[in-house]
Structures are given as structure tokens and as C-alpha cells.
Amino acid sequence: MSKEFELVVDRIKCDGRGLCAEILPERIHLDSWGYPIMTKGPIPDHLMGLAQRTVDDCPVLALTLRRVAAQKHRGR
Amino acid sequence: MSAPRLLAGPDPSRGSERRAEHVARLGPLPKGGHALVELLVHTGLTGRGGAGFPVGLKWRAVAASSHGSAVVIANGAEGEPHSRKDRLLMTSRPHLILDGAMLAAASVHAKQVVLYIGEDHRAALRSMSEALAERTDHERRLMRIVPAPARYVAGDSSATVHLVDAGIATPTTTPPSPRDRGVGGAATLVQNVETLAHVALIARTGTATGTVLITVAGSVNAPGVLEVNAGTPLGDAVQLAGGASEPARAVLLGGYFGQWVPAADAWTLPIDPQALHARGLSLGCGVIGLLPTSRCPVCEVAGIMRYLASESSAQCGPCFFGLRALADACTRIADRGTDPGDLQRLQRWSAEVYGRGACKHPDGAVMFLLSAMKTFGDDFAQHPAHLRRTA
Ligand SMILES: Cc1cc2nc3c(=O)[nH]c(=O)nc-3n(C[C@H](O)[C@H](O)[C@H](O)COP(=O)(O)O)c2cc1C
Ligand code: SF4
Ligand code: SF4
User: Fold this and answer.
1) CATH of the domain spanning B297-381
2) Based on CB atoms within 10 Å of each CB, which residue in B27, B112, B219, B291 is the most buried?
3) In this prediction, does ipTM exceed 0.85?
4) How far is the CA of B310 from the centre of ligand 2 (A)?
């Protein structure tokens, strides 16, 4: 079983204030309207702690860490 | 050239075919089940609601996770502005659709069937409810009609589930897809009404119907719905629709989520889902729209982008703000003339918006816009100010 994770944002929940991009700028940047764009691919081990923090700190709980191999998701 | 299968029998414009006539013409409802699912896989039937997904594979998946409690939704929302084919089918051949829905229910072991019909499609609603009243007690217990709001996104599969569950026809976040977790948490098969009508015939004959329903719209002499053999050249279909009423500039293939093709390249295209797919095109929901040389493509595209932006369900930031920004930039070019900055912004924002909604509404709108900018590149690059608005 793969232990690689990626960050998935629930587009309906996210209200785009960009806290996640402040916590993890290495993997998340904001689009022209302030909504997060996730870098594609698995999150490197040394950033997993910060990735978990974006999940915990997102004010509307829009973020999840998902096993890359477990479920395909569409888009970014 | 055209070989009616779905529309064989009495003149469709005369209205709803009664059950007795339907059964006399085609025979009783055959059995659904595993063998039918495999037959559908074998015939390669693909969905006719727009996405073109293989039907047999979807039925297999839903049957596997059904546990006897699946739900079937027959999608007759037909929210695509120029499409008429689902309405014509619901109005003239309701029992084909009900047969297809019952076959689906038997094949995926469903315990309820929802007939999801756009509330503005009055004749279709009447015809479908009259037809439902003619079915057996068992069938009437299983099937019910749910009117859907007349909004573009109400036809998205997750929106159909949301309306049935919570009375709100807006899309929801996927995954989970309705197929895995739909109405009341049960595996749910969402299938376009034309697709179900094809199934009703395939189950009887054991072979592919070999036809598709299309709506020919725009600058043709006799716009409307046609049933053509798959593979019919697009130009022949236009002739069947009375021919172009004035010289054509381009063809929009597949409705507002579709792609523009210059007229010179369009006439020989085969109207066939698989063949078009192989060329990077899509028949989508079957709308073939002719844009005449007398209309300005930039103004036309701006009008459609404003429509698609206004039809966002406003739940996801990139879709709501992004489509509005794209529509505004198109409108600026249409009204005030080309600004190279706006052209760059259209490209950059398109890339930012694509793939970033809960549903595929923004993806469809962006694909439409990108194909317009490719096909009408010179018009976008040199649009004059204050050209008359045609949209
Ligand atoms: C914004 C949006 C609107 C849609 N509207 C319709 C519709 O009006 N009718 C329809 O059959 N499918 C519509 N679809 C496609 C459905 O999500 C779904 O793919 C289809 O009903 C499945 O049936 P099929 O496989 O038989 O085509 C829409 C999809 C999107 C993203
Ligand atoms: S922190 Fe949460 S709500 Fe804020 S932008 Fe990131 S995902 Fe969206
Ligand atoms: S992507 Fe757009 S249309 Fe789809 S759910 Fe989000 S806001 Fe609504």
C-alpha cells in the first residue's frame, strides 16, 4: 500500500482566504481570486507535518489528505 | 440517409405514443439483468447526455455495489439551450424511455426509479406522466416523476441526486460519485433519457441501434431534431434540416460545452460519438449549431460566456469568480474592441479555472472558450469597438 499523500480541497466548502497557502507555500499558491491551487503529485515527507497543519487549521475544514493511489480525484 | 429507430412508428410531431400501440409495434418488455449488461458492453453504447461514458461499464459498476438498493435516475433535464431531442423523445416515445428505465432497474437491482424532467418541458412532463399511468402496478410503485428547475447545472448527475435527496438542484462535491454514493447513500445510476430509449431497442433486437438523435440549430432552414445513422456526414444532416439558410462561418458541435469547427472542415465530419472522439471532438448532447458569416463570432461567444457564467451555481470560487471574469473580458473585447491584455488574461484565467470546480461546468465553459479563440483567432485579435451586438 502506497504511503504517498496529496492535499485535496473541497471546492464547495473552501471560501478562499488562503490560510493554507500561508502555511504551506511550497505546495499551495493562490489563483487570481484567492483560491488555492495545489501542486500536483505526492507531498514529500519533510512537508507532511505542515500539510497536516493546513488540514487542521483550515477554518471551514475544506482540506483532506488523501492517499494518492487509493482514490483518483479530478482536477487540482 | 436517416434511418429512424427510436422515432420509427407514428409521426413524432403527433404526440405521445400510447402503450398499446408501443407494445403492438415492438412487443413486450424484455428481461433486464446480467445478460443485458454484457450485451450493452458488447454493443459499445455510450451515454447521450454529453459525457459519452460507456453505458455497459456503468451498469456493471452500479450492479456490483447495489446490494438490491440502487436507484436509477432517468435524466430528462435537457438544460442545454438549443437541444430539443430529449423533449421530443419524452413527448413522442415515453414508453421507450420507461422500458429503458425498467430494464436499468432490473439490471442494477434498483428499488426506485426517478424520472427527472425539466419543469419547463410541459409537454414532456404531461406525456411522461400519462405514460406512467398506463404501466403496471409494480412499475408505478417503482417509478416517480421529479420536476427539475430550469437551470443549466440542474442536469449534472450530482445535482440530480441532490434534488432528489434535499430538494436543491445544485452539484455536490465528488468523489463520492453518484455511482458509488447517490440518492440516500445508495449506488445511483444516472442515465440520459435518449440513452435509456436506445437500451429499450437493443434489449429487443440484440444489436446496436446504430442511430443518434441530433438537434440542428442556428442558420438552417428547418431547425429541429433528426435521427440519423451514426457516421452520417454532418453536411448531409444539415441538408436534412433544410440546408443552410445563409453562408455558414462555423459549426458549434455539442452545445455550449462543445467545440467550434470552421465550416470548411465541418461538412465531412462523421456524426458518430466514437469517430468524433478519435478526432479530439465530441458529439456531446448532439446539438449542431450553424453560425452564419453575417454574425460576429466574438459577440456570439461573449453572449454564451455571459450565459454560462450566470448559470454557475456560485458554490465554488474558481467557477463563480473565474467564469464571471472570463465573460467580462469577452464582453469588453466585444464592446470596446481588442485589448492585448484581455487576450492574455483570457488564456491565463482559462488555465486557472479548468478542473477547479466541484462539477465540470467550468471545464465545459473553458473548453468552449478556448476552441472559440482558436477557431476565431483573427476576430479576437482584431475586434473593432462598438460592433453591433448580436448576442
Ligand atoms: C453542468 C452540467 C449539466 C448537465 N446537464 C445535463 C442534462 O441536462 N441532461 C443530461 O442528460 N445530462 C446532463 N449532464 C451530464 C450528466 O452529468 C450525466 O453525465 C448524464 O446524465 C449521464 O447520462 P448518459 O451517460 O446517458 O449521458 C450535465 C453535466 C454537467 C456537468
Ligand atoms: S485554508 Fe481552507 S478555506 Fe482557506 S483557502 Fe485554504 S482550503 Fe480554502
Ligand atoms: S463548479 Fe460551478 S457550477 Fe459546478 S458546483 Fe461549483 S460553482 Fe456550481
Assistant:
1) 1.20.1440.230
2) B291
3) yes
4) 24
